[in-house]
Amino acid sequence: MTCALLAGVAAVLLRFGEVTPYVAPYVVLSGVLPPVWAAMICLNRGYEPRLIGVGSEEFRRIAQCGFILIAAVAITAYVTKADLARGYVVVALPLMTVLTLLARYGLRRRLHGRRRRGEDCMRRVVAVGHRAGIAELTMRFRRERYHGMEIVAACLPAESSGEIEEVPVLGDFTDVPLVVQQMGADTVAVLACPELDGTALRRLAWRLERTRTDLVVAPALMEVAGPRTTIRPVAGLPLLHVEHPDLAGARQLIKTAFDRIVAGVALVLLAPLMLVVAIAVRASSPGPALFRQTRVGKDGVEFTILKFRTMRNDAEARRVELVNEGHGLLFKIRQDPRVTRMGVWLRRHSLDELPQLINVLRGHMSLVGPRPPLPEEVARYRDDVRRRLVVRPGMTGLWQVNGRSDLSWEESVRLDLRYIENWSLMLDLQILWKTWSAVAGGAGAY
Q1: CA nearest neighbour of 103 among 73, 49, 58, 68
Q2: Helix axes 2-16, 24-43, angle to 10 degrees
Q3: How far apart are CA 402 and CA 441, in angstroms?
Q4: What is the mean pLDDT of residues 140-168?
C-alpha cells in the first residue's frame, strides 16, 4: 500500500505540479489507490506465504496485477468517456507496479539474509520417505537455506529410531500427524516411495487437513524445474508431464544472438578497463597479459580460452610440486603460491575472465552455461557428467552464483546439469543479475 500511495503522490506532483481544485479528485484517487491495489494483489493470491521469498511466481503475479489494472482503467475510461488525465494514469499505475516489484525484491533479499543467518522465518518440515531420499533432501535444504525449509523430524516406512543427517527419526508413516504436533511443524514433505501410493497419500492429506499443515510432494525428478512440468488429468489420474529441455531450435538461436550482441557491446564498453588491466598485468610480473589454455566446448570440440594472466610464467611446470586440496576432478588450492599479487585481486573480482567475451563473440562460449572443463577432466568424465558438453560452456553459471571455487566437484556437476535441464532465457538473465553481487562479494574466488 505504501508503494501505491507514493506512486499516486508522485503522479500528482509530476502531472500537475501543485494542488488546485481541479487536482482535488486526483488527490482523492491517490488515497483510494492503495486499498484497491492491495485488494487486487490479494484477489490474485499475491500474498500467499508459499510464494513469498522463492521463485518468480511472486513477481509474475504483481506484474499481472499491474497490467490488469492499467487495462481496466483504460477500458473504463474509454467506455464511460471519463475525462481522466492520461499523464496521471501513465505515471501512477506503472510506477506503482515497479515500486511494488522493487519493494518485494528488497524484502526478499532481507528475508534470505535472515534465513542464511538462521535467525527465523524458517518453515519446520517433517520429511516422509526412505533414508536415502530424506538425507539428500536434508542436505539440499541446508545448502540453500534461503528457501526457508528446515527438516526437524523424519518418518520412515517401518518403525525405526536414530537419526538421518542429525535429523531425529520419530516414527513411521502412520505417526506423521503425531510427529507434526510433537515438533510444532507446519509442513510435511513426502518423497517418492512405493509405500505412499495415491490412496495412502490422500488419507494422509485428510489427516493433516485438520491441523492446516501444508503437504508438499517431492517428485523423483528433483532437478526438473516447474516450467518443464505440467500436471494433466488422464482418466482421473494427475499425470506429471515432463517436457524435453530446449537444446536446439529457435530458442537456442535467440540465446546465441543475445550472447553475441551483449558480448560485442560489453567489449566496446569495457575496452578501456581491459586495456588498464592488461597494462597492470604486464607491469606486475614478467610474461604476456593474456593467458591461453585449451578447454573443451560444446559436443567435445576443443577451443582456446582467453584470460588475463593471474599466475607466474612457470605455473604449469610447478603444478607437479603442489598438493590438490580439491575433491573430484578439479585442481584447487586455496592459497596457490603461483598466483601473482595482481592475480589475487583479478580473481577475487573475476576481472581475469573479461577476455572470454571474445570467446563468446566467436561462438566458443556463452555468457551463461556450465564451467568450461579441461581436456584431462573430460577424459575422466562418467557418462552422466558428459551431459555438460551438450551446450556451450559459460562465463558464468549456477556454479558462479552458488559458491564458485568453494563448491565440491559433485555440487558443481549437479548445478551444471540443473542448468542444462532447465535452461531458459529468463534463467540466464537471473544468473547474470546475481553474478554482479557474487563478483562484488568475492566469496569463493581463489
Answers
A1: 58
A2: 150
A3: 12
A4: 84
